[in-house]
UniProtKB/TrEMBL annotation:
<keyword id="KW-0067">ATP-binding</keyword>
<feature type="domain" description="AAA ATPase AAA+ lid">
    <location>
        <begin position="129"/>
        <end position="163"/>
    </location>
</feature>
<dbReference type="InterPro" id="IPR027417">
    <property type="entry name" value="P-loop_NTPase"/>
</dbReference>
<feature type="domain" description="ATPase AAA-type core">
    <location>
        <begin position="3"/>
        <end position="104"/>
    </location>
</feature>
<dbReference type="Pfam" id="PF17862">
    <property type="entry name" value="AAA_lid_3"/>
</dbReference>
<protein>
    <recommendedName>
        <fullName>AAA+ ATPase domain-containing protein</fullName>
    </recommendedName>
</protein>
<keyword id="KW-0547">Nucleotide-binding</keyword>
<dbReference type="GO" id="GO:0005524">
    <property type="term" value="F:ATP binding"/>
</dbReference>
<dbReference type="GO" id="GO:0016887">
    <property type="term" value="F:ATP hydrolysis activity"/>
</dbReference>
<comment type="similarity">
    <text>Belongs to the AAA ATPase family.</text>
</comment>
<dbReference type="InterPro" id="IPR041569">
    <property type="entry name" value="AAA_lid_3"/>
</dbReference>
<dbReference type="Pfam" id="PF00004">
    <property type="entry name" value="AAA"/>
</dbReference>
<dbReference type="InterPro" id="IPR051701">
    <property type="entry name" value="Mito_OM_Translocase_MSP1"/>
</dbReference>
<dbReference type="GO" id="GO:0005741">
    <property type="term" value="C:mitochondrial outer membrane"/>
</dbReference>
<keyword id="KW-0496">Mitochondrion</keyword>
<dbReference type="InterPro" id="IPR003959">
    <property type="entry name" value="ATPase_AAA_core"/>
</dbReference>
<dbReference type="InterPro" id="IPR003960">
    <property type="entry name" value="ATPase_AAA_CS"/>
</dbReference>
Length: 251
C-alpha cells in the first residue's frame, strides 16, 4: 500500500485524521500488508513551533496508530519509509523505524547498466565504450545519467541542423542522424555535473552516527547482501507477529 501526501491531506477539517486512520484500518483487514511511505520527509518533517495544526495532528494520529500495532500478537503490518533527505525526518518517526538501509549512488558497473537501459533504443556507434563513460562520471545518480544522455543526444541533432537547411521538425525526425559516439558522451560529461552535493554525504554520516542501533548497509558495495538482510528482516518480522518495532533502551 503506497501512501503519498495527497492521499492523507485534505482541505476539510478533520478529514486528514480520518484518512490516516482509514489506512491502518484497511491494512489490518488485508494483512499481511506493507505500508510504503514515499518521500517520508514530506509527510513527517521534524516538528517545530511554526507547523500547521493539520500537520501536527496528522503526525500524532499516525504515530498513535503505529504504536497500536503492538496491541495484538498476530499483527502482520510493516511500515517502510523512503526519502532522499533522512536528516529532515522527525526523530520520533526515526525511532519507530528499527532499520535504516542506505541506497547509495551507483558504482561503475551499475552506471554502465543504467546507461545501457537509457540508450537501449538509441543508435550507437560501434566504438561506443560505455564503461569508459561510466568511469568518467563518478557521483552521478540515475537522473544525472539520464540528463547526461539527453545532453549527448543533442550533439548529433545540432550538427544535423547546422548541415542542412531544413525545418526543425524534419531534422528532428532522427532518420539521418549519425550514431551516438563515445566523444559525444564525454562532451556531455564535461557539461553536466552531478547534482548530489558533498554536504549530503556529510549529513548522512552525521545521521548514521545518531541512529543508535539502527542497521545500515551500502547498496553500491553489497547489493546481494542488502537484499538478503532486508528479506530476512521482513520475514522475521512477519514470523514474530509484530508489524514494526522500536529501538528500546538496553536497560
Amino acid at each position: 500500500m503506497c501512501v503519498s501526501p495527497s492521499s492523507l491531506l485534505s482541505k476539510w477539517v478533520g478529514d486528514t485524521q480520518h484518512l490516516t486512520r482509514a489506512i491502518f484500518s484497511l491494512a489490518a483487514r488485508i494483512e499481511p500488508c506493507l505500508i510504503f511511505l514515499d518521500e517520508i520527509d514530506a509527510l513527517f518533517r521534524e516538528r517545530s513551533a511554526g507547523d500547521h495544526e493539520v500537520y501536527r495532528d496528522m503526525k500524532a494520529e499516525f504515530m498513535q496508530l503505529w504504536d497500536g500495532l503492538f496491541t495484538t500478537n498476530d499483527c502482520r503490518i510493516i511500515v517502510v519509509g523512503c526519502t532522499n533527505r533522512p536528516w529532515d525526518v522527525d526523530p520520533a518517526i526515526q525511532r519507530r523505524l528499527p532499520r535504516s538501509i542506505k541506497v547509495d549512488l551507483p558504482n561503475v558497473s551499475q552506471r554502465v547498466k543504467i546507461l545501457q537501459t537509457i540508450l537501449r533504443s538509441t543508435q550507437l556507434d560501434r566504438s561506443m565504450d560505455l564503461l569508459h563513460v561510466a568511469k568518467q562520471a563518478p557521483g552521478y545518480s540515475g537522473s544525472d545519467l539520464k540528463e547526461l544522455c539527453r545532453c549527448a543526444l543533442m550533439i548529433p541533432m545540432k550538427e544535423k541542423l547546422q548541415q542542412e537547411s531544413k525545418s526543425v521538425a524534419d531534422s528532428a525526425s532522427g532518420a539521418s542522424l549519425r550514431p551516438l559516439t563515445t566523444e559525444d558522451m564525454l562532451e556531455a560529461v564535461r557539461n553536466i555535473r552531478p547534482t548530489t552535493a558533498q554536504s549530503s554525504e556529510y549529513r548522512n554520516e552525521l545521521m548514521k552516527q545518531g541512529t543508535g542501533g539502527a542497521y545500515t548497509t551500502d547498496l553500491s558495495t553489497s547489493e546481494d547482501q542488502m537484499r538478503n538482510d532486508l528479506r530476512d528482516f521482513l520475514l522475521g518480522t512477519l514470523a514474530m507477529g509484530q508489524g514494526m518495532g522500536k529501538n528500546l533502551p538496553k536497560d
